[in-house]
Amino acid sequence: MDPARLSARSEFLYGTRAVLPAATATAAWGIVTGVAMVKAGLSVSQAIGMTVIVFAGSAQLAATPLIVAGASAPVILVTAVIINLRFIIYGAALSTHFRGASALRKLGLGYLSADISFAVFMQRMASEPGRPFADAFLLGAAGANWVVWQIASLLGIVLAGFIPTRYGLGFAGTLALAALAVPLVRTGPARLGVAATALFALATLDWPLKLGLFAATAAGMATALLAELWSEHRARRRPREADRG
Amino acid sequence: MGDLYVWSVILGLTLVTIVTRAGYLFVPERLGLPGWLERGLRYAPACALVAIIASDLGLSPASAGIMTLLANPRLLGLGAGIGTFLATRSMLATIGVGMLVFNLAR
What ipTM describes this predicted complex? Predict the structure, then answer.
């Protein structure tokens, strides 16, 4: 075997090994998503279709109650876009590593890059910048993550049939979303933003077509961004005031 | 909710995954997002998740009284779940404790 191939292959294996520590978390998240989709009212085949091709847990969990409530398709899709906006930021970071890649490779690597595989890839690139076969590494990480996620989700979808409805397991999906949201709220501006979002979402509950969701999200983002700009502005002013004094 | 409607939404969601994850890889280098928009987008996932969680609580403007609010099983379960997450950083523990409190409160 030629050496280039060999090392692409070893990078692929490094990638698969790098996501394994996160496998239990991914599996737990997959099982919950599978159970919650069925318990919220999707049929088994719809839940399987969703998990196999949509492959975006938080968007799936967000979309499920909207689908079951019969919300209009554009509202559901725009909600999913908003939930997935973080992937655009990931894409911006990934794009610097894959400028010369073929269209098919960009499409495949992008589609498969969920949160964990992206995080693992960026760690690798930070610790060893310029290491060759970055695409093989990412494919290994994303591919292993995909396999773990799919097995766990299918397991959850099957298990859902054995759990009585009276435990209200659809609510597990909401709790899982909370566990995803909490680590994202680390800074002051983010706290203000989500507080504004929560108040706005509760105040707009009776808006038609779940439009309150967008209004609340936009209000929260604007609040967070303004809070961030304001705290920067203050930080910039302080040294000058000290000069004067 | 007809089967056709659900499947077309599922296909649409698949396109959303592809476009949001892979789309940026096809943007020419000189056409990136403006800096302020990229900064604002960092807050989008947290805000969108919180908006969905808040609307999942099953509250209505009519139940806005503080006592009805405090007696809401979903709100109690959510509070317990968030507390558990902060203490353990474990999604499974969060779901376990949250579901337990939610079911005890119902």
Answer: 0.81
